[in-house]
Amino acid sequence: MNLFEVNIRFVGGLLSAYYLSGEEIFRKKAVELGEKLLPAFNTPTGIPWALLNIKSGIGRNWPWASGGSSILAEFGTLHLEFVHLSHLSGNPVFAEKVMNIRKVLSRLDKPEGLYPNYLNPSSGQWGQHHVSIGGLGDSFYEYLLKAWLMSDKTDEEGKKMYYDAVQAIETHLIRKSSSGLTYIMGHLTCFAGGMFALGADGAPSDKTGHHIELGAEIARTCHESYDRTSMKLGPEAFRFDGGVEAIATRQNEKYYILRPEVIETYMYMWRLTHDPKYRQWAWEAVEALEKHCRVDGGYSGIRDVYSNHESHDDVQQSFFLSETLKYLYLLFSDDDLLPFEHWVFNTEAHPFPILRKENGSKEEKEK
User: What family is it from (predicted)?
Assistant: First the structure.
């Protein structure tokens, strides 16, 4: 099984179910599952394998990942869940595993301040120096910020790593098109608008407004990627070259699989600015989902969002329920439903309470 997916979906879901319901069975099962995942960290560096046989405890990496490397977005997206597992179980081993990942990363040179997507778990050295805020890299950066927020803003290491990384991202990866659209880009990177806005409050004082503006610019670009399709739903990837802006040019990038990242950014931008356009843009997406993706058994992905005729892929991804619909519900709800001052969302949109310095989660659960 995939350590990353099991962690964000199952461990995250069980933790969230416990905090929202108080039912002991969810806490127990989250900790039991967390214990089953620990053998993945049995590598020379403690950087975990991507894939784990739970029965044998033997791990391995994806064969395509840069000479047997672990992937930044996978081993870097365990922190929130594992800190909560230690908090709820009283067993420090979970938090120790993810803090060790930080130690390994802190010892390495970062090319131009950026984190390559591949790290060899045996040598502790970077694989090929490919950098991305989309797939392979995305949620690593998100979890640096959220680790700081979840710690009641006491995790200074996470804070520094995040803001240093954002500075490098802005310097080396963010571009502006000839018509003024800010991009990184691809559907998966659209989450970054919400991330930049969520982190604006903790940015150096002269950068707070800038981070909100950066979030707004990315939200606008991602809305354009939706608006420029026939179905008003965004493609998997979109390009800025050869006179093309925010449009998918390759057939294998024109599909929409009910992804949440654009809606996620709208939700954060709405909560943090209350600019009504974010609700308007989100409602456009709701109407498009209802018109083009609704089928007898639920909702289906679309093979080509530029076509005038729907071709469904006959798959309802699990993140459609856990993320896309949840973010929409929160976007059209009052801000006191899972408020940001008390809750942090993991990368699968499962809410975790902020761990207060004095007494932690039990009090938070009541809020």
Answer: Belongs to the glycosyl hydrolase 47 family.
- Catalytic site residue from 261, 264, 304, 323: 261
Question: What SS3 state is found at 136?
Answer: coil
Q: Return the pLDDT at 186.
A: 58
Checking if the pLDDT of 305 tops 70, the result is yes
CB-based contact 147:133 (threshold 8 Å): no
Residues 240 and 175: their CA atoms lie apart, in Å, by 10
5 catalytic? Reply is: yes
Average pLDDT in the 177-200 region?
89
52-58 CB contacts, 8 Å cutoff, 24+ apart:
52/1, 52/3, 53/1, 54/1
Check: pTM over 0.85? Answer yes or no.
yes
Q: Answer yes or no: is 347 a known binding residue.
A: yes
pLDDT tens for each residue of 65-106: 998 999 999 999 999 999 999 999 999 999 999 999 999 999
- The verdict on whether 264 is a catalytic residue reads no
- Asked if the 174-333 domain carries CATH number 2.102.10.10, the reply is no
Q: Indicate the pairing of strand 294-295 with strand 239-241.
A: unpaired
CB 169, CB 133: distance < 8 Å: yes
CATH architecture of 1-172+341-367: Alpha/alpha barrel (1.50)
Distance in angstroms (rounded) separating the CA atoms of residues 260 and 246: 18
Q: Could you confirm whether 261 is annotated as catalytic?
A: yes
CATH 1.50.10.10 in the chain, residue ranges: 1-172+341-367, 174-333
